[in-house]
Amino acid sequence: MGTVVVTGAGTINALGSGWRSYLAALAEGRSGIGPLEAFDPAGHRSGLAAEVRALTLPADVPRRLARRVSRADGLAIVAAREAVTEAGLAAPEISAAGLVFGATVGGMREAERAAKVGAAGPGGSADLRLPPRTLMQFPLCTSGTVVASALGLRGPRFTVSTACTSSANAIALAADIIRAGRTPVMLAGGSDVLCRLTYAGFNALQALDPEPCRPFDRERQGLTLGEGAAVLVLEDADHARARGATVWARLAGHGMTADAHHLTAPRPDGAAAARALHDALVASDTPREAVDYVNAHGSGTPANDVTETRIIKAVFGRRAYRIPISSTKSMIGHCLGAAGALEALATVLAVQHDIIPPTLGLTHPDPDCDLDFVPHAARRQPVETAVSNLYGFGGTNTSLVFAKSP
Questions:
Q1: Which residues are catalytic?
Q2: Fold for domain 4-403?
Q3: By CB atoms within 10 Å of each CB, which of 9, 122, 218, 351 scores lowest?
Q4: Alpha helix locations (H) across 88-215?
Q5: Phi and psi (nearest 5°) for 5?
Q6: What residue spans define the domains of the chain?
Q7: Cβ(238)–Cβ(250) under 8 Å?
Q8: Contacts of 291 (CB under 8 A, 6+ apart)
Q9: pLDDT, tens digit, for every residue of 274-302?
Q10: Contact 127, 121 (CB under 8 A)
């Protein structure tokens, strides 16, 4: 199979807009978690979120398109435009490129607003008449459609919705499309937004931490929700070399499995997730001793963090104690369908810039989470190969392996 490399990336999240701002914040150990402003969280366990404070569409987005984009679409456009620019793709290459995009709630924020207006109506009675452009904001597939329209992508296009592994699986699928020879360039990523539905849902599950999330800490009480988008440009290595592209990292391999256990809880022994990690190492021809960093799923929930610790020990054995591991959710929150892409980008940046982001809030280590979770401050050390783990509701498990390109 051909080699797939990353030649560009873009993001917007609670730490700012652009991958440079993201890298700087990860290196500084800066948190993007703060009071939720999008809607009133009164009555919930938490009033916190990792929120994007400013969203401005690129100036050249056609007005007819800008008028109908949802917040999720807007985040996606910003990230995708930066990714294409950073990759230095020419117009014909952009036109032939494909897109695989991950999402879980899509235009739910706009759907909630429309439902509220419809219920009240102009005279206080129900009014279900909505303009077509409003209706087109709701579906999960719309962000991919909007990005393709804004950038002029005419290659293969898919939307993936597998809970919190959505955009990690989008990256894996895009790489497989390139390796199959369908097209040499694919954009892959995801976008998701804060909305009342997910906030209330995680509150009902008692999965929100009243404090900023603190993965692997013994006092952790749950996750902090976030929003954002990230997009990677994936490219066949020979194609990238021929056009003189800068290679950020190599997507060496991936593994995907399912627990078939529970709708929301991970399988306690982590066996299926361990197999996804094992399969990713085998597919990438990566010995356990070669892994220099693991970007953990690290959601901050009591069950998930203990299970992930077991997974890493099961795969790496005693070597697990010598691998730096961290959760970037402690800075950007849990961004659901966008989590896989945002954390994959953090992993790529770790490989490219030899920096390991920290786990914030890890003040009281959990004795059941006894690995090196890089508390408080980033570390600068060589990172040749790194793994990104993502797990989601329904027992979906994905591991991606990134490495420096020779």
A1: 164, 297, 334
A2: Peroxisomal Thiolase; Chain A, domain 1 (3.40.47)
A3: 122
A4: 91-96, 108-120, 132-135, 142-151, 166-179, 196-204
A5: -125, 160
A6: 4-403
A7: no
A8: 281, 316, 319, 323, 385, 386, 387
A9: 999 999 999 999 999 999 999 999 999 99
A10: yes
